[in-house]
Every structure is written in structure tokens, then in C-alpha cells.
Design a protein that fits this description.
GO terms for molecular function: serine-type D-Ala-D-Ala carboxypeptidase activity. This protein is α+β, with helices and mostly antiparallel strands and 269 residues long. It is globular.
């Protein structure tokens, strides 16, 4: 589905004015904040604390993916370029190196590992390549250009905390980010729809998205977790030409974030 520039401006306007009907479905969710939207018209079909500022953890990586795809399109980055992995300060964070013990990767593999297995070092390496220490500011500038509110703040390419600061956003803003990513770079769904990937070096990386193949038409999008953010997930699915995006922030467990998503998808379709 393509969203042209004028339609995108209208979508932002509709979202800013949108609110759910008082008769919205009665849905019990574990998540502290959640929404489901129709992409065609930006209508919010269900909301729970949609404007509440929440930590978003690895959902951050969707902005990094957007900027990578923009750089590739603008010939500022090549999929075949080889990069050495950035070393993470947190040894417990999910990393490509911890699984493979391989230090040098192509941009394509780093991009895929970032989205599929949520590799933090892959995301940080891509961010470092694009704008070094200034990459978080590049992310925030892009957010403003997309029409996201000033409630959204990025602090790192991966979503990991930096000096005690966390990436934060709202479900409304995350819908704008997700729909912009999908509408301008629909090829991202070819990666996020995979339950696993095989890198160019032959390493198999499993997806963190347990709903692939479990929900009709679901082809993305991104999980997230930190102790502060809880279990987060942005899901998207398309059926009969209709696409919806669901957002779950701060669910109690990984299983509950996916259960919440299943409920939201039923509302959406």
C-alpha cells in the first residue's frame, strides 16, 4: 500500500484529531498502553492510554531501519558494505557477536539481524556508520519531520539506555513511525515477516516475533523489552487490502504482549 505525500499530511492531521468512540470494544489487556489503527484513514479503533509517554526499548530500531533504508535509497550506504560490530557496554544485551562470535558483517546482514533477532550491536553499528555520536539527534530530527510529537525521544540506535536516559514515545507516535516506514519502504516487511533468517555467512537467526504464522496476514513488525519498558510489540497485518497496526507497551510478559496483540487484531479486522 502506497501513501502519497498529501495523503500522509492528511493522515497526520486525522491522527492529531482522532479519539476513539466512547463505545470502543471492551477489551482486557495486560499492557499499560495500547492501540490499534487502520492505516488507510489513520482511525484509532481502540485505545488505552494512547497519549501516555512510555519507554519503548527496541521499538526504537524501527527508526534506525527507516534511516538505513533512506541512506541506501540516497546512495549514502551500500547493502554490501562491510562493517565491524560496535562493542556494547552491556554484556547482557542481545547481540549478534554473542551468538556468532563474528565481528565483521555486511550492512544487509546487520539490518536483518537488527529487525529479526533484535541485535543491539547490529543497530548501534548501523547508527555509528550513518552519523556517529550524532545519530540519536538524527533520529529525533527525523521524528519531527514525520510529524511525531515532542513526547518522542530517541537516545540510541538500538533502544538501549544511555547514561540513565531511556527512549520514550506514545502509541500514537509509534503508529506514525510505523506507517511511515511501511508506506515509504514496504520492502521492510519482507524482512520482518520472516520467522528466521540465514545470513550471507550461513548463520541462522531466529525472530523474536512469535506471531509470525499465527495471525492471518501478519508480516511484522518489532518487539521490545527492557525492565523499565516491559514487554512491547508493534504488530501489523494486511487482509483483503486492509492494513492495521497494533501497538502494545509495557505488558507483563512476552506471552501477554502477543495475547494482547491477538485481541487488538480482532478489533482491527
Amino acid at each position: 500500500m502506497k501513501i502519497h505525500k498529501l495523503t500522509w499530511v492528511l493522515l497526520i492531521g486525522l491522527l492529531l484529531l482522532s479519539s476513539c468512540s466512547a463505545k470502543q470494544p471492551d477489551v482486557y489487556l495486560s499492557a499499560q498502553s495500547a492501540t490499534v489503527f487502520s492505516v488507510e484513514n489513520g482511525k484509532m479503533l481502540y485505545e488505552k492510554n494512547a497519549d501516555k509517554v512510555m519507554p519503548i526499548a527496541s521499538l526504537t530500531k524501527l527508526m534506525t531501519a527507516f534511516l538505513v533504508l533512506e541512506a541506501v535509497d540516497n546512495k549514502k550506504l551500500s547493502w554490501d558494505e562491510q562493517l565491524d560490530l560496535v562493542r556494547l557496554n552491556d554484556p547482557s544485551a542481545v547481540s549478534l557477536y554473542a551468538i556468532t562470535k563474528k565481528r565483521t558483517w555486511s550492512v544487509r546482514d546487520l539490518y536483518s539481524a537488527m529487525l529479526v533477532m533484535s541485535a543491539n550491536d547490529a543497530a548501534e553499528t548501523l547508527g555509528d556508520r550513518l552519523d556517529g555520536a550524532n545519530f540519536p539527534q538524527k533520529m529525533n530530527n527525523a521524528a519531527k519531520k514525520m510529524g511525531l510529537s515532542n513526547k518522542t525521544k530517541f537516545v540510541s540506535a538500538s533502544g538501549l539506555d544511555v547514561d540513565g536516559k531511556m527512549a520514550v514515545s506514545t502509541t500514537k507516535d509509534l503508529f506514525l513511525l510505523s506507517s511511515k516506514l511501511i508506506s515509504t519502504h514496504s520492502e521492510v516487511l519482507k524482512t520482518t515477516a520472516k520467522s528466521s533468517i540465514i545470513t550471507e555467512e550461513g548463520a541462522k537467526l531466529e525472530s523474536t516475533n512469535d506471531l509470525i504464522g499465527a495471525i492471518q496476514g501478519l508480516d511484522g513488525l518489532k518487539t521490545g523489552f527492557t525492565d523499565e519498558a516491559g514487554y512491547c510489540f508493534i504488530g501489523t497485518a494486511e487482509r483483503n487490502g486492509k492494513r492495521v497496526i497494533s501497538i502494545v507497551l509495557n505488558a507483563d510478559t512476552a506471552e501477554k504482549r502477543f495475547k494482547d496483540t491477538e485481541k487488538l487484531m480482532k478489533v482491527g479486522f
